[in-house]
């Protein structure tokens, strides 16, 4: 007996009254849901991923989408997802691949934290009328300042300050590689960060020559596969990031499906055409913390100590102690990627079950570094599941210097979070290398959208700070007194070091 | 000068308070014991708690002299604590590897006693300096201690309108740690950041108020980080980045480094603060001056106040009155 076909995940319907058979849906759907037969447009809903491209492009609003039109017998334990994963694996005998971030229904801690505002005893500060500082320096900070008093009374700095990135907003864009996403997507984001005075990561896929004009705003990544890494690459970046792990799949390396390795990707990444690029799970020159310190120093030596070096780890149970070890190396910044972090491709079991939420990770890393008196010497970048400016404010109040956004930047370019990034068929031209799909994403337009998002969030952040009577981002950082936990349990509140509402 | 003028000055500003807390600090109050740390302690009772404290003091040093601080009953001031003073000499040898062992011993005793909730609170711990405070109107508190009987070369005074901890004697200003005293008008919105920063260096905030953190920050920046007072104040209320960007290069380097190194010490929110130690008095406001600060000068005397009226009450012939711009420190150094 075979398992047979599974119930539809999505059902597409066309309102025949409204449809004018213009065939835009057929042109736009890269998954092949629509076809024309005679005078009718027919639908194969089984191929649908809910990417919404057809709906967005239909001039008559004739298309509707329904999720899970056919129910399973309901059961609290044997959910639809659990059963379908089993059918899938019974058929294939393989690991299930998935895209985007954690799809498990864990509570979102950000949504159970509320921010503070001033009333009476201190005035809120109006960012329209008063200075409001969101500028953020990312890098090693001196532990103390030495000055020289000159004979004429002038004071001069005697301490050498390590190079820092100067970001005009604490919002940066995290690492999404060329390969995982298209060149047009990277170009759009590169223009956006250049326009807004912030930074983005290259991911582990090297730096395409068309991004060279924006290299001052690019953080180049060195991951376990070393794809695209040579001295030219290192020298072009404004900073270098060693990727140890990523929130979507802690403990394993990057995975770029061969479908996405076109000629240009193969050249930039320095790998054979059409081959899967599977990065090793560990760096094979890092088996312990002292090896990491060595790699940090090696990269600094190679670039003459002119660039900050970041180390990115996935948020795992022991993140705080690991971060303390990283802070003791010459690393300038630590990136913590929470378990909601997105990805182009990850085994579903890792994406949904490994790692911890960014809120708890940032709080415990910040506390650990403080308890060792070294918190201010390194920058802390939080990423993984930042959806709006309030999340940014909360992450900073929990102890982050800055955040990386990923999925949010893609959504600003049109992404509908359908989670099929690993298939090379992204109809929005974002997570694909198919030329005809990539062309759909116009960097001229998309860069404005991403820049708009960063500007809008930065404005909202300034308003939130002003309402809290704070006019500089340093005074929000780690200021957990301005947060309250709402319906959080006591033990989690003690990890977050926040009080409950009303207290 | 004795305390009568400052009592007069403070009474000019009664509508800034609510009769629930006032206090004074005099530098130069104890010339006969100037080599000893003068510890002022509020005891809940002197039967149990006093012994605990004295045992600890004897363990770390030598009590040269101690006495009940003389007070005079006031009709509207309810005595809830017994104020006591110790003149204390720590044994420096007990704090190895420290560059300021005596200070470290005293500071550690203060932190320990004040966090242990033993019914004793050390609210003044410097040499030749004394804090006098209680819950009441400024004149009542002054008369309670007969503040005019004390002589000082620097005086700070404060009238409180509490919101957080009304009526608590320990919550009245000035706050003091070792040589530093502070009075503060305002609310520090960055308190959560400042407290966590300073606590990572071993200070413990115990007074349930944002003000004490200022005393600890100054102690840390000046004594531990070796900054001059003007740079310490600049770290607490630094110039805006836009202003730094317009400075000459060397000045930019200094100010940027100061903000990078001491960002978590930077104070936000509305405040006017005066801090003092045995050789100087420094007044400054937040970076957009959300609280008033007026400065008066007469010969070698410097007055800093929330209101001009208070300065004129002390010195009707004051020569110069000015209002410093936001964030700018006003520093008066003791003439030698």
TrEMBL record, chain A:
It catalyses: 2 L-glutamate + NADP(+) = L-glutamine + 2-oxoglutarate + NADPH + H(+). Its cofactor is FMN. Its EC number is 1.4.1.13. It is an enzyme of class 1 (oxidoreductase). Pfam families: Fer4_10, Glu_synthase. Residues 10-38, 39-68 form the 4Fe-4S ferredoxin-type domain. Keywords: Amino-acid biosynthesis, Flavoprotein, FMN, Glutamate biosynthesis, NADP, Oxidoreductase. PANTHER family: ARCHAEAL-TYPE GLUTAMATE SYNTHASE [NADPH]. Belongs to the glutamate synthase family. This is Archaeal glutamate synthase [NADPH]. It comes from Methanoculleus frigidifontis.
